[in-house]
Specification:
It is built from 17 helices and 5 strands. The protein is of the alpha/beta class. Strands 1-5-3-4-2 form a 5-stranded mixed beta sheet, with helices on both faces.
């Protein structure tokens, strides 16, 4: 990992008010402040404060300075704007320096790897700038505002794992999904359209990722459901989430960490079930890690059963239990019911109809590129 280029890290600890330029021009002319005040029509006190940067340089002052000292009106106004900007950034840097301990709550290196934060060494010099970048990433003004919005969101978490306790990592992963959804145009959520979309999406399970992904996104977009593929953050222990970003804006967010196509599609339909079955819980955030089982949540059990039966119905499962445990039989059965053979293998393994080491070559490992920034 390399440091940021010098042009990016340069942040001078000094600021120069327009008064410095005024003082230079006065010196060239041999004027005292009293003479300049008389020429400008300002009080001596006001000129003194203007030179020291203690009062803002107004549009009227810019016009008078243009007349008396030269330079365009735009020059003087730009000089003032630059000074105020640099002073504000300097103040912000000082505040950020006092908040560097907040960084410890987040997987900073993982966020650097994803391009969310600028790659740099985690030293005392770089940390204040990272605080500012992290605040901008979350869209909050201070750690206090983060706590009120994202920290308190923990109260709405519905977990499948007891160790989903790293709120900083979970909130960062959720924010990546929010930012992806913000880039999407979408219709108002329509449950009937969503159900019809899910029927079409089931047939997409037979396709390769580069074929099904754009069609999946299009179907969900038309139904008013945001969809985001976000790289996993290890400390978050979350592979999928269903939540509502607003009263009419549901989001399904998945990672591809360790997912073969059977797990991916089960995860997708599991999250879809939360939207359909638990849509009245608009403030709930259903955090799922389907690599871990044992949740006692009734909502999670309902979502599991719905996804299971949507992919392979109880009637189809009864037939599946009777087919020979061979590649040809499993593939032919999958074709008859309209899903990928890897999904049938995964279900048979889950139900104890196949050894977990059998026919895994019928599954497909997914690697779908997305842009988390």
């Amino acid at each position: 990992m390399t440091d940021r280029p010098q042009a990016e890290v340069f942040a001078p600890d000094w600021v120069s008010p327009p008064g410095d330029t005024i003082a230079d021009l006065m010196a060239e002319r041999g004027w005292a402040q009293q003479e300049l005040a008389e020429r400008l029509g300002f009080s001596l006190k006001h000129v003194n404060q203007l030179i020291k940067g203690k009062v803002p340089l107004s549009e009227e002052a810019a016009i008078r300075l243009h007349n008396v000292l030269g330079g365009s009106v735009g020059f003087w106004l730009s000089r003032e704007a630059q000074y105020r900007e640099r002073a504000a950034l300097q103040d912000a840097a000082s505040r950020n320096a006092a908040m560097v301990s907040w960084l410890e709550r987040f997987p900073v290196r993982d966020l650097m790897r994803l391009g969310v934060l600028s790659p740099c060494r985690l030293n005392a010099e770089a940390k204040p700038a990272l605080v500012g970048e992290l605040l901008a990433f979350f869209g909050v003004a201070s750690p206090e505002q983060w706590e009120r919005h994202y920290g308190q969101m923990e109260l709405a978490f519905r977990r499948t794992r007891a160790d989903q306790a790293d709120v900083g990592a979970v909130s960062a992963w959720l924010r990546l999904g929010e930012r992806a959804a913000e880039r999407l145009d979408g219709a108002r959520y329509d449950e009937a359209k969503f159900r019809r979309a899910l029927e079409s999406i089931r047939a997409l399970t037979r396709l390769q990722p580069d074929e099904f992904e754009p069609r999946l996104r299009g179907l969900l977009q038309d139904a008013g459901v945001a969809f985001a593929l976000v790289p996993a953050l290890p400390r978050a222990h979350v592979s999928g989430v269903a939540r509502w970003l607003g009263p009419n804006r549901p989001l399904i967010q998945l990672s591809l960490y360790g997912k073969t196509n059977d797990k991916f599609w089960f995860s997708f339909f599991h999250e879809a079930a939360h939207i359909l079955l638990h849509g009245k819980q608009k403030r709930a955030v259903f955090l799922d890690d389907l690599n871990k089982t044992g949740s006692e949540s009734p909502e999670e059990r309902e979502a599991d059963l719905w996804a299971r039966d949507w992919l392979i119905s109880p009637e189809q499962a009864g037939v599946m239990a009777q087919i020979p445990r061979t590649r040809a039989a499993v593939t032919a059965f999958a074709q008859r019911i309209g899903v990928h053979a890897g999904i049938v293998v995964g279900r048979m393994q889950h139900d104890g109809l196949l050894e977990v080491s059998w026919l895994n070559d019928l599954k497909v490992s997914f690697r779908i590129a997305d842009h988390p920034r």
